[in-house]
Amino acid sequence: MVVVAAALALASFALLGLLEAELLRNAERDAERQAETVAQLAAAGDLERMRPPLHGADFVQVVNARGRVLRATPNLAAAPSIAPVKPMRPGTAFHTWRIGTLGGEHRQRVVQVTTDTPQGMVTVFVGTSLRDVDAADDTTTAALAVGGPLLLATVALVTWRVTGRALDPVEAIRAEVAEITDRDLHRRVPVPPTRDEVARLAQTMNTTLDRLEAAGNRQREFIADASHELRSPITVLRTQLEVALAVRDPELWPELISGALEDIERLQQLASDLLLLARIDAAQPALAVRLDLGDVVRGAVESRLGDRVPVRADDLASGVAVTGTELWLARVVTNLLDNAQRYAAGRVEVVLRTTGGPHGGTAVLEVVDDGPGIPPGDRERVFERFTRLDDARSRDHGGAGLGLAIARDLTAHHGGTLTAEESARGARLVVRLPVAAGG
Fold it and tell me: How far is it, in rounded angstroms, from Cα 316 to Cα 255?
């Protein structure tokens, strides 16, 4: 409102100035015309022919260089010169005076024309009253003095109401968000039907709450599943240790200790997987370098000893460069091979190739086994954490249902995808990664 008031004040002053300037130009136009006519008569030595003032001129007075009045209209009869005598030079000048002889109630716009005559230099004064100008100024000033505050008050009221209505939805959003706690993430903020920035803000807030709720649910499920998975090996380990403590036969101790070590190894693997998932969820940055994906796959295959089913890796394309972390990419390959080993009947095959695309090449890594395969309805569920399609069999082989989840999260961390796709026999897991620039 301060800005509006300042703009209104400047506009008012500008309006008054323009109005007065225009009225002054109109007032002095006729006076200047008559002053030039009288000056021409004086130059010709024929002042006797001077006529009464024309319309728009109130008086005429002709004064010589000594200040003597040579000719004047009746309303200035016997009046001295309206201006003190000064050195005269030919030309035209404009003045605004209050002339007491004429009453002085209103200003006079006086046109002064000095010219050379046979009797010497004379000055012609022609004046016109600024009565109408002063009246217009007074009327306009009074109108602005009354209308300005009314307009300012109207703008203030409208601005207050419009701003209040515009901010009401924002206040509703703020109040709702202020009441949402970690136990009320199912609540959503109201979305106004205005389809403006405030509505988009509410939609964005609700989308953020959706993600927070999903993250909270996932965290709670993860904690519950992790607690369940840790409870089983800890319970078995405690039982084995209690049995070993109760058994007095030394010949049974190696078997009991061996079982305890297996459970400890399972606990270590589970703790390692949980820590890796926590790092992935926290989006902790890892060193990314340019790698040959074929070398990473080949190294992961060659490092495996004692696999139940031999792994065939004869079809690996060379020179497939990707950007990523060697340890994490090797973990992806290892987890896929571990999954294939659990279910393969007699064949595990790894294939690496590249495909072109409109936005650059793509590296495609396939791990195929000849096991029972994955039903179409479960091809997404197998990537959920702690998910096992055959729970008993997975436990026998030591799986916790985290391998494929970790592999997908690590692949996504590298900007790729991991999917279970159709296969003539067994399971076919496909990793797609963007090829590094120039690779």
Answer: 43
Strands 108-117 and 120-129: antiparallel
Q: For position 54, what pLDDT does the model report?
A: 63
Cβ-contact 355, 361 below 8 angstroms: yes
CA–CA separation, 157 and 81 (whole Å):
58
Handedness of CA 379, 381, 382, 388 (dihedral sign): negative
* Domain edges within the chain: 2-135, 197-279, 285-434
Q: DSSP for 342-398, please give it.
A: HH-SS-EEEEEEEE--TTS-EEEEEEEE-SS---GGGTTGGGSTT--SSHHHHHHTT
Distance (Å, whole) CA 212 – CA 218: 10
Count each helix (H run) and each strand (E run) in the chain, helices first.
8, 12
| Beta strand 311-316 pairing with 348-355 | parallel
Q: Residue 29 carries which side chain, given as an amino acid letter? A: R
Structurally, at CATH architecture level, domain 285-434 sits in 2-Layer Sandwich (3.30)
Please state which architecture CATH assigns to domain 197-279: Orthogonal Bundle (1.10)
Interval 156-176: pLDDT, tens: 999 888 888 888 888 888 888
The pLDDT tens digits for 104-150 are: 667 888 888 888 888 888 888 888 888 888 888 888 889 988 988 99
As beta bridge partners, residue 420 has 429
CATH number of 2-135: 3.30.450.20
Task: Please name the helix (run of DSSP H) or strand (run of DSSP E) that holds residue 140, with its range, or none.
Answer: helix 131-179
* Rounded-to-integer distance, Cα 361 and Cα 435, Å: 5
Residue 392: pLDDT band by 50, 70, 90 thresholds? very low
